[in-house]
Q: What sequence folds into this?
């Protein structure tokens, strides 16, 4: 510690420990909101934007509340092993909840990727065309499979949140 800093430290501590007279303290006026005008974040249906399915897909609703990205979970990517091919959906494809929106093939097996909700495919993740193994590196982030326009965001309410999904995979492993 420098000599200058060590000489000011005791003086600063004494200054901060002094009590100011109440007249020097500015009193804040309480703010009142009309009843019912303030919403808690926990009451919003979009407070948890990422949801999970029993079949190990995830969906993350965008801030606009209309589009969402879909992919496979880390658990699914680990279970599949080295991914060698990803079938992406065609733009404009109409899908219902629990219908295939793509497929993932690995050295171990192949699996359909089911849409958690109904909607219209906006685009597939073209990065996966050339680099299917990328899904093993970033399954729940940059390696999403499809982006869809969601027909009814309320359908996400029937899906798992992160804590419930973790319990689901723990029960599945036992």
A:
């Amino acid at each position: 510690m420098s000599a200058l800093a060590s000489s000011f430290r005791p003086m600063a501590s004494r200054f901060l420990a002094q009590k100011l007279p109440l007249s020097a303290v500015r009193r804040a006026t309480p703010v009142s909101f009309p009843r019912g005008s303030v919403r808690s974040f926990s009451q919003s249906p979009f407070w948890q934007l990422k949801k999970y399915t029993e079949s190990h897909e995830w969906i993350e609703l965008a801030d606009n509340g209309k589009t969402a990205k879909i992919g496979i979970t880390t658990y699914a990517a680990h279970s599949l092993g080295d991914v060698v091919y990803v079938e992406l959906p065609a733009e404009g494809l109409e899908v219902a909840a629990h219908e295939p929106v793509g497929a993932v093939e690995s050295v171990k097996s192949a699996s359909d990727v089911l849409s958690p909700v109904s909607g219209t495919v906006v685009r597939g993740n073209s990065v996966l065309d050339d680099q299917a193994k990328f899904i093993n590196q970033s399954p729940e982030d940059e390696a999403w499979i499809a982006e869809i326009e969601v027909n009814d965001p309320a359908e996400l309410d029937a899906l798992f949140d992160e804590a419930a999904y973790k319990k689901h995979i723990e029960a599945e492993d036992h």
The chain has one domain: 50-173.
